Amino acid sequence: MARIVCDPVTRLEGHLGVNVDEGAPVSAGLSAAFPHTIADTSQVFSTMYRGIENILKGRDPRDAIQITQRICGVCPVPHGLASTFAIENAMGFSPQTSTDHTGHSSGPTNVARLVRNMTLGGEFMMSALTHFYALSALDLVQGPAEAPWTPFWDNSYYDPALLNGATANANLNYNGSGAPLNIYTAVITDYVLALRARTKAIDLGAIFGGRLPISSTYVPGGTTKLPTHADVVKARTVLAEVRTFILNNYIPMTEIVSALHGLADNDQNDWYTPLNALSLQGTSGNARGPYSCRNAVVDGIDLKKGLNLGAGCRNYYSAGGFDKKDNLNGGVNRIFPRGARIGATNTSSGTLEVVDGHKIRESVKHAYYDAGAGNVNENLYPGSGVTRPQPTKTGEAYTWHKATRYSYAADTGQASVVKEVGPLARMWVKGAAGDSDGYCAGMTKPLHKHAMAGSDGPLPDLSVWAAGYKCGSSLLDRHRARALEALVIADAFAGWLDELDAIVSVPGWETNAANKRYVDAPNPLEGLTADGFGMAEAPRGSVHHFISVKNGQIDNYQIIAPTTWNCSGRDSFDRLGPVEQALNGMPLRGVLSDGKNVPVEALLVVHSFDPCIACSVHEIEPKEGTNMKQFVISEGGATK
Known about the structure:
alpha+beta; 15 helices
C-alpha cells in the first residue's frame, strides 16, 4: 500500500500536511476510472506550534481583544468578537447558564449590536469571495497556460467547458443572458471582478470597524464607533455592488461548476434525466467530467446522485452568529442559529440538538502536547485547558492540532462527537432550525431557469436551502453553501443599515441612553476573579475563547479556532477528525501534473474546508532582548 504525502498543501492559510494511503479500487465497475481509493488511515497534520495562549498570561484581559486578532490576517475580527464575548462573560454582562451563557451580551445596546454585526459581516463576504476565486477556482477550472497557473492538471481531469481556451458551451449560459457561455473565460473574468468585490466587502467592515483587518471597534460592553447617517449612505452604495456580484456571478458560478463536476450530493431531483436530455451525460459512461453521474448502481451507490465525494462526518456544529434585534438581554436569536446537526445524510435530515459549550473537550493523545502524569491534561474542558508543547513527543503524535470534540463521553466513544464547522454546517443548522428569513425569495435560480429549458435542473432548487437544508454534504456543497451564505449576510446587512439609519437620522440620537455606544460592566476588572467563555462564528466556522481572570489579570487563556475543529487529528478513542473522515474512502483517479501523479481528490477535499492554519497553530520567536509581555499602546500622545 503506497503512502502519498502532500506537504505542504498550498492555496490555504499557513502550513498543513496530509498523508493518505492508497486502498483498493472503488469497485470492478469503476476501477478503470478510479483505480484506487484512499484507505482509512488518513492523517491531517499541522507543522507549527501555537503559543499565543501563553503570551496572554499576566496581561489585562482587555489586551486579549487586540492581541488575539493578530492570530491571523485573514479573519481577525471573529477573534476580537469572541474575545470580547469571553471578557463580557467574565465581567457579568451575559448570564452563566449551561446552554446560552456566551456569544451575546446583555449589556451592549442596539447600536453596538449593529456595529458589531456589520464589522463582522464585511469580513465574511470578503473571505467567501477570496476562498472561491483566489484559493479554490484552480481546483475546478484549468488556468491560463502560463505562470503562475502552470503546471495544471491533465486535460482529462476537467470538463471540456472548463479547459483553458475551450470553445463556447452551447448548453449552458450565464446570468440568463441567452448567450452561450465559455465557462473558462467567465471564471477568469469573474476573478478580476471578484478582486474588486472582495475589496468593497472589506471596505464595508472598515466603515464600522474603524479599520480592517484588525478592528478597534470591540470593547467590553459595546463599541468604540460612533456611526453617522453618512456612514449608512456610503455603506448602502458599497453593499449594492458587493451583493450584485454575489447574486449574479458568485452563486451561479458555484452552481455551474458543481453540475459539471458532478460532485453535488442531493436527493431533491433525479438529475440524471435532464443532463442526459441535454447531451451533458451519456447513458453508459462519463460524458462530461471525471466525476459526473453514471447510469448505474455500484456497490450500493446510486451514481445518478453523485459520488458524494468528501462528505465527511455529517455532524455539523454552529456556535451561532450575527445577533438579531431581539437577542439583547439574554436572547438566543441569531441570523445563524446556535446548534448542532447529528447524522445528516442525503436521505435524512438528522437530529437537531441544543449546544452546550461546557461539553467541549480537547484530546492531545495524537498531538505534540504534554498529556501530563497520568494523562491529567487529556480530554480537558478548554476553560481548564493546558497548552504545554512537547515537540519531542514520540509514539502516536503527528500534529500540532489538539483534537476538539463535542458532547464528549469517556465511556461510550460515540461517533457524534466529531463535528464539522463552517458554512455548510451553518446552513444545515439554519435549515434544521426552520430559519429561512426569506432569503431565497425572488432568486433567479440561474442554473435551473437559464441553463435548462424548464425549472428543473441538475442541482436542487435553491429554495430548499431555506426550507430545511438537505442539499448535500459533498465537497462542492461546501462551496455552494459558502456562496449562498454570502447572500444571506448581504441581505441581512441591508436590514442592519435600515435599523441603524432609523436611529442615527434622529437629531441628538446619541444623547439617548438607549443608544449608548457602550455600557458599564456589572463587575469592574480591578481585582476581578472570574471565568469567561465567548462563542462566535468566523468565515471558516465556530471560534471559541476561554478566559480565566485572577485579581484582574489573565491567569489562563485558551482558543479553539475553526480549523482546530476541522483539521484536528485523532482523539483519545482514535476517532478521525472531520477532514480526515472526509478523505477516507474517497476514490482516487490520480491526475497528472507536470508528469507527476497527484491525488487531486485529496486536495479538492482539503480546500473545500478553507483551512487557516495560522489561526489554529503558529509560532512566535521574539527578537533577542524583546520583552514579549510588554504591550505598548499610544494614547493621547502618552505611551503606556
